[in-house]
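LAB NOTEBOOK - FOLDING QUEUE
OPERATOR: T.R.
BATCH SIZE: 2
PURPOSE: Compare the predicted structure-token outputs for two unrelated chains run back to back under identical settings.
PRIORITY: normal
REVIEWER: second-year student, initials M.K.

ITEM 1
FIELD SEQUENCE / FIELD STRUCTURE:
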Amino acid sequence: MSTHLQDRLEKIENTIAKLVETSAKGKLVVVEGKKDAEALRELGVAGDILTVKTGGKSFLDATTEIEALEPIEVVLFLDFDRRGTEGTHRLQQCLERAHIKVNAKLWQELKALTGHDIQCIESLLAYLSAFRQKI
């Protein structure tokens, strides 16, 4: 058993635990699609989750929808591929212009920990399962 792999898994699990805790404190979590939201639910995220890429929504539509919810803080948790990364940055800019506090730290942590191993949030469960079997 590699202690490096164990440490990495522990860091990934800690990041997910922080997301669960942040959501439980009433912070809105924003993901791309329904399958991403379902994956986060299975990981224990019980708070509000908003999907931004369903029903043909634009980032402006998503920003307007988020503003209407009047959140204290928004946690961006889009996919890790190029489109998700660009979307995270664009949505962050739109929300900050609307004076909404944005937290992309957990997304950045998880993206750094998983590298290019996963591209989308919906594959996180399978990734964790496979990672645990390696150890």
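ITEM 2
FIELD SEQUENCE / FIELD STRUCTURE:
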Amino acid sequence: MDNSLRSDRVPSLRRRLLLLVSTASLTFLVLAAMLSYQQARHEVQELMDGQMSRMAQLMLAQALLGEDRLLDLPARLVDILGLPSVEDELTLEYQFGRADGTLLVRSPQAPSLPLTGPLGFSTMQADGLPWRTLLLEMADRGFRIQILESIPMRDAEALEIAVRTLEPLALIFPLGLLAIYFSVRRGLQPLEELAREVVTRSSDNLSPLANRAIPLEAQPLVAAINRLMFRLGAVLESERRFTADAAHELRTPLAAARIQAQVALLSSDPEMRDHALKQTLSGLDRATRLVEQLLRLARLDPLAQVPEPKRINLGQLAWRVAADVRDMEPDACISLDLNATQARVDGDEELIEIALRNMLDNAGRYSTKGSEIIVFLSARSDGLRLGVRDCGPGVAAEELPRLTERFYRGPAVAAEGSGLGLAIVGRIAELHGAILELHNRVEGGCIAGFEACLRWPH
């Protein structure tokens, strides 16, 4: 295989799938972390608010037993043993006082905040830090209790909960990526086998690819490749046949010209030498016409459509071609029958001119010398027609279907020709969406001539 196909500049479907799936997985993990953090923060807020409320109620209950029970509360809390020391545990601070703002007792780390604020939960600033506060009052005793908790510590606790929640996912994520890699690799295996089958094929093997094991999504690609192989096979076969026929057709006029040239060289009779030279020129003219026709076909065959179609006035084109032919062949009896002089089609004007000239050339070669040849343009219910009719002997019915075959000239044709004229006209018709119609003209039950035309359906 060509190493250029493995270049990093060539996009890899496997790499693309891995990148997309991994990015999507990582995005979902980040979103899950953000949602988990928000949820944990919300839960911590509710949990801590509930804890603050319970602590405030308990301390107020202690105050009912006597004010002195609260004054030595900080010292008694320090003497409590048996609880493990946790550096990052959430601690609640408190202040206890009277409704007039007099402070009676406070915890060692409690910030200095007034006790005269509004009752209930609130957020306050102390020493540049936000605090969550709960202020309650015993109306009958005049006591006030304020419970405080650091908001940064709350957020840190929420983050820790979220991290601990996502730790298993973070550990599993690399394993998930590995599983994705092997899954994508196995899923693309049929495509790799298809690629190997195509690469290992010989240049002359254009048989269809088997699509039994190909995934459903890749079957349109396989079908397109099979259609391409079918077209390539048809084109190659046509080219082989065309090359063989062209070689055969060129061999005859060239051999004849060679013989006549040899006769001219060996002849001492001026009249015989002149005749031989004229025959040589005739053979070369025939070979030249054949080469021109071959070059036209070689130009037309690869086209799928007219490259740059333009609007063409068929009436003007028919008049110009007929005038050119009259100038080149003054003896030709050519008349015009143009009933749709303003008819227009989209296409290549040069190609349509070649088609009309070929039809005129055929009419001149195969009809009776001096008989009338009519170039006609008409618009009918079934379409627009541009063509040529003559007054010759016509064509046998069994030969009509073969007139567009390349190099076919019929078994009883005496006129010179290559057998490519109508084949070129047919190809030009295909490129312009037209139909080449060939038939004998019948008058009074007898053949009165031959007609060839391009018809553009409505």
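REVIEWER COMMENT (ITEM 2): Residues 310-456 form a domain with the Heat Shock Protein 90 fold (CATH 3.30.565.10).
FOLLOW-UP: none requested
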